[in-house]
Amino acid sequence: MAFHKIINDPVYGFITIDDELVFNIIAHPYYQRLRRIQQMAMAHLVYPGAVHTRLHHSLGAYHLMCLALQELTRKGIDITPAEQQAAKIAILLHDVGHGPYSHALEQVLAEGVHHEKISLLIIEALNQKFDGKLQMALEIFTGAYPKKYLHQLVSGQLDVDRMDYLTRDSFFSGVVEGYVAYDRILKMITVHNGELMVEEKGIYSIEKFLIARRLMYRQVYLHKTVVSAEQMLQRIIKRAKFVAAACAQPLNSFINEPLQNITLDQFCSIDDADVMMAIKTWCSHSDKVLALLSNGIMNRNLLKVKYSATPADEAFVKRTKLAVMQHYELNEADANWLVFEGNASISTYDFDDNPIKILYKNGEVKDIAQVDDALINESLRGKSKKYYICYIGL
Amino acid sequence: MAFHKIINDPVYGFITIDDELVFNIIAHPYYQRLRRIQQMAMAHLVYPGAVHTRLHHSLGAYHLMCLALQELTRKGIDITPAEQQAAKIAILLHDVGHGPYSHALEQVLAEGVHHEKISLLIIEALNQKFDGKLQMALEIFTGAYPKKYLHQLVSGQLDVDRMDYLTRDSFFSGVVEGYVAYDRILKMITVHNGELMVEEKGIYSIEKFLIARRLMYRQVYLHKTVVSAEQMLQRIIKRAKFVAAACAQPLNSFINEPLQNITLDQFCSIDDADVMMAIKTWCSHSDKVLALLSNGIMNRNLLKVKYSATPADEAFVKRTKLAVMQHYELNEADANWLVFEGNASISTYDFDDNPIKILYKNGEVKDIAQVDDALINESLRGKSKKYYICYIGL
Amino acid sequence: MAFHKIINDPVYGFITIDDELVFNIIAHPYYQRLRRIQQMAMAHLVYPGAVHTRLHHSLGAYHLMCLALQELTRKGIDITPAEQQAAKIAILLHDVGHGPYSHALEQVLAEGVHHEKISLLIIEALNQKFDGKLQMALEIFTGAYPKKYLHQLVSGQLDVDRMDYLTRDSFFSGVVEGYVAYDRILKMITVHNGELMVEEKGIYSIEKFLIARRLMYRQVYLHKTVVSAEQMLQRIIKRAKFVAAACAQPLNSFINEPLQNITLDQFCSIDDADVMMAIKTWCSHSDKVLALLSNGIMNRNLLKVKYSATPADEAFVKRTKLAVMQHYELNEADANWLVFEGNASISTYDFDDNPIKILYKNGEVKDIAQVDDALINESLRGKSKKYYICYIGL
Amino acid sequence: MAFHKIINDPVYGFITIDDELVFNIIAHPYYQRLRRIQQMAMAHLVYPGAVHTRLHHSLGAYHLMCLALQELTRKGIDITPAEQQAAKIAILLHDVGHGPYSHALEQVLAEGVHHEKISLLIIEALNQKFDGKLQMALEIFTGAYPKKYLHQLVSGQLDVDRMDYLTRDSFFSGVVEGYVAYDRILKMITVHNGELMVEEKGIYSIEKFLIARRLMYRQVYLHKTVVSAEQMLQRIIKRAKFVAAACAQPLNSFINEPLQNITLDQFCSIDDADVMMAIKTWCSHSDKVLALLSNGIMNRNLLKVKYSATPADEAFVKRTKLAVMQHYELNEADANWLVFEGNASISTYDFDDNPIKILYKNGEVKDIAQVDDALINESLRGKSKKYYICYIGL
């Protein structure tokens, strides 16, 4: 009897691991670390169920990749067993380079280094440890592998990454409207001219998929309280760097040393707990700004946020800043850490890059935005930008 | 302890009846008849689970009305107990005038009489039987009652009727993408200037609601096989009238007598079973067309359908018709019953009538199609029309 | 690309038909007839969602058979493609012999002939029509095929028939407690010594399965209102025979002719609608008993029922019968149709026949009722019998 | 408009907070700390979705308490608004005394002090902060309040705590068989003679509830891998105390100081992250046992476990211990930390303490274990004990 492990998943029922190499990669400490990194960072402050991990998401995306490959194979697309294994490994590891609180801290903990870059470094390291068996996965991950559609399944406007995170984030947050009919979509995909496409009858499911994504961004990922908490998290780390606040190793190196001093092993040894513990320590730090922000996150005493369609009213910002300076006895530079503006934008569909293509029965191919009676049409082009102001309560 | 009955519902869990008048209306034969009328007519030929009844849908809509009234009351809208009872009764009975196979046969069994007209007649009849206690329900049903929003809950672009049928039809057909977040929407409704509106934060839920409806129409209600079966059903009745085919009473009167001879009691005594039994009888009728169509429906041997964005190719229609005439030995007039064209159209949103209004926190009111970055915008105006041709296989 | 059809199912998501013979059997009128026979007869009078059909249940059981065969094959059990096809066809057709309202009328419409007998006749007829291709399915159905476990999957204490009907009936009735973890159980089955067994780690799932069944019988199938309605249905047919009440053909033959005159084709042409239409006709029959019962069913005006642990109090029965005789002006013989006693019994587990066997890792085999700390143990032996009295209200 | 907050919950849909005092208690840091304590400790190593928090469970139990009080009130039980508020607060805070990894570390972090004792201390502290407004909640929590059933709802064999944790743990772990029909059960509860009881028709739901609990214990809470991980966690802390291993404050005090030195504030400042960070530090500790266990937990490299119905085979234990001593170069005393025996036991129902009482329609009261044909009967009396041996792999 072949290798066979089953994992219970509240979202998909069961996830099956029937490849020993895949199993061994999952067992590796680099991968297990993802257990300690929450998928949705601070979103649980609004949606208390949203505490699932990057490990869980990666396993889910892996499961959807299995379903996708099975369907394409059934449709006669020739994908070798080695390619199938490689595509599964590529998706399994696509997020392995995420650091603590993933996106929320990506820009501040390893400034200027995108998590995909680190994922790549880790996959390369694992490739060495596993005697080059991850070589093809590496190529699929970077897009170098000739069968382009395998990379598109890992990363594109209709990849299994998005399909899983929307499904999973919607499930755990309880925002059922974010539900994505992943099973139906995965029965509608096909390959044409070497590219991933969707069969004609899948048009409405794709529309729904894009609308679900649109809703999740607006209602969950960019929920004003979530934005506030994640802004606070970023500012805590930035302020800690600014005032050279100490914390336990190895996180301390990320705060107080230049990035080039840090090794991959050090990176792989930090997770959400390191940041959380540092913040706990900083709750009683002598720097007032750091202490205010740290206590705020710990006790869910968050900065207030106002969204608007236009940049914030300057008079209001000025007035608020003055009040904060007085109330907390801060100079203006410090008050700027506690009263600040920003903006967020999200497009429903990227009209220019890597379009979702529909394959008609008659062989015609159309961009989803160009089908008859398209819901996703040019009228939506342009990122939708929203402005916000965050400020501490008095 | 007050009157209290609980009904198990796979969709909502439990439906509570805590009003004796409502209970007595449910117990009345006119209402119980709805048990024998399927909500989705022939859709079960494609979606085998879609066999739920008009009675079940009406109970569901009643349940959502209870939730809506509860939320509005909580928000301080003054709705008297009598008005609440009346609104509940109005929605409970909104479909009571549906005949066998409801929409599918509406135009042919009682030609020229809309089911809402018959619902009104039945509500009036019940009002007499219940000593005038349904008077206010009648007024809400017709829109005569001053509090316009009560009628809007019964009938409008965001009424509890649509909310239930989308939710329920999606549930029973297994087309999960048609899911509507009725619970969230019902927490977002409010009344402003006497009209039903949706709070600002409900915008994305409303968008999703409209998209879900769009999808259900395209994927389910107008599924080509469903259209074929329902066209066949209509043509069976029309052909039966045409050839004066007999069947059991009282359905026979509907076939072979002028409409004005038919009483309300006769109308209320026919249901899906009468039509089904008549069709069984006609399977061996001497009229070839009637027999072909009847056998087709009974054994799920349906006419073929082709959809297209433009009217059907005349050459194809002609060619097909000739082949059918030859194969089945029919003249052209008869072949026209088995080879015919039609069209179906569905708008995502009605831009002109009874718009869905959004109430902003600052008191502003906007049509959902006019909000910033609207998904439902002018680019979708105009019904989307699709053409089809139906024809019998050879 | 191989033959491949997908059917939406609210219970399992998608059911796949990837065998053309299976597809052709489904398309046959004998099978399509099951669309017109409700799975749960009169249970919808209590659980309005419980209107699903025998066709839907058969498709569901077929789906579970596919999963079961897939799992056994994965575990190295050698099952040939022909055997797999045969087992799928056997389960698909296991209920094809059900008549109108299935179990509820089984004893009265074709007295003395069990539905499995008729299923067998129909499978034989289909075997002829399909050139003997159903021969192996026939053998599996009857238990004649050497691989006993294939028959056990079709019919046994842990067959896919039960697994589907519990799951499906629970789903449509909304009694979520009847939920059965069919997916987990199907991952735990295996074959040992030619018999179907359950792996050790599946013990608790099996316990839950038996308890779910226990609950469904007590709460749903033997719900007092359901029992009342089904008793009424039986008595309507019996009374119709007794008074030789006429109705439309072919049902009329079942009522007014000896069983041996009836052909298989006649049997296959009646369904729920025939019975429902006959009952409608009898609502105004001159026989008072028949008319009372018929109106009761049509308008959900049901006989009252009292359950008790012991046979009904004779004094109460006598008193009630007298009151009914007076009120409805009936003689005692006729009153006996409207006031009567009965009993129902259901065992949680059949200790003697076809036990569910657990296969331990060490190779040991135990009856589920004999495992350590068994929930299902000898203390439950013996059918649990409940007595009821049904009587018409005054 | 009254105070009104809504929280999205994937399990129940929405949880409503409509009481400002309740809201303020939730906002308190003592309560917010529960966000950082996982409900199921190490179970996520087997069930990756099981990462929900004590805060989420407490909110869920609060929600069920609201439903329970609403139902009892509807049934005419007189519960004052003050009592309702108090019962809600009591359940909200019932777990507030849990420390890091709750049950798993309860016995080692604060030896000899049960978490309910600490909950009580915290409720008293909060009572002071909130000017005595939690006095009645305190009395309900301790059982001192005269209306005994309010305490039974908080703590008993059928309390809302169990109902929520079974429902929630089943949901997040994906072990759907643990599902509890909380909504049906909560419609069946009543109060009789001052005690909480279940109406007769709820018997089967209660049986299912007990069986679901039985299954969750056997399949999840006492899953051998979960037991292994939790044993390792306990041994890490014990070993850290034994070798006086240092870690960051304030956890360090718990390890290296007598319990009486620790304040409530110190207790309330530690959570899962403190333990996780300490374990990370100890991964490179000079004590080999501590380092082995710490690395094991971090990288999911767990001790092996064997369950058996009888105490472990002594020869096997001895042989294993010797092998471990040799392989890891340890003396016997140290090897005992890595090879050890234990047992776990769980009764399906507690026959002696606080029975679940059924109230029959005729006024009779029976213990659920004494009803006719009881599934939960004397044959199950006695805890079911299972023995295990844990040992490190070589």
TrEMBL record, chains A, B, C, D:
InterPro entries linked to this entry: dGTPase-like, HD/PDEase_dom, HD_assoc_2, HD_domain
Residues annotated as domain HD/PDEase: 50-175
Taxonomic superkingdom: Bacteria
SMART domains: HDc
Name of protein: HD domain-containing protein
